[in-house]
From TrEMBL:
Superkingdom of this protein's organism: Archaea
Pfam families: DUF5797
Protein name: Uncharacterized protein
Family annotation (InterPro entries): DUF5797
């Protein structure tokens, strides 16, 4: 996805202001409404932002690198994850392993975390979110299959109270 100069500037705003809301970006970008912000994000920056569990707008790690805001210390930026995303992250195949189907990940999560009521739609949603965040990659075979795009130890999972820690599988 090639970004215009305006898109890059707006992406830098997201990186700088994150976590943020439509209203904040509406003011910054001098747009008419939060809906206009949402439409713009979806049409122009879809691959570079996501909404966290509180629906706040956050930049992906790729977005931060693109605008030159990659962490200097070598530490990965903190990634906010819902409980289902954390569970999927903990059990999904690593970057050097064979990618697995949604059903395979579902069974692994159920076995590891004893959540028998978890459904494949929940796992699929978590996988898609982790894919947007640049943590999971998809391989298309007979069915889409998934695995980590990066090593678990290279992902810094933000704790619920705002603290950051290196994630452990």
């Amino acid at each position: 996805m090639t970004l215009s100069e305006e898109d890059r500037e707006r992406l830098a705003d997201i990186v700088e202001l994150q976590p943020t809301k439509n209203g904040v970006l509406q003011d910054r970008w001098d747009m008419e409404s939060g809906s206009d912000v949402h439409q713009y994000l979806e049409s122009e920056l879809r691959d570079y932002y996501y909404r966290d569990e509180n629906s706040l707008i956050r930049a992906t790690a790729e977005a931060a690198e693109l605008v030159g805001e990659a962490p200097e210390s070598g530490e990965a930026p903190a990634v906010h994850m819902s409980e289902n995303e954390r569970r999927v992250f903990a059990v999904i195949a690593g970057p050097d392993e064979r990618a697995e189907s949604v059903v395979s990940v579902l069974h692994a999560v159920r076995d590891e975390f004893d959540v028998p009521d978890l459904e494949s739609a929940d796992v699929r949603r978590a996988l898609q979110t982790l894919k947007r965040k640049g943590i999971v990659t998809v391989e298309h075979r007979t069915v889409p299959t998934y695995k980590l795009a990066v090593a678990r130890e290279d992902v810094n999972v933000a704790e619920r109270d705002g603290e950051q820690s290196a994630s452990e599988a």
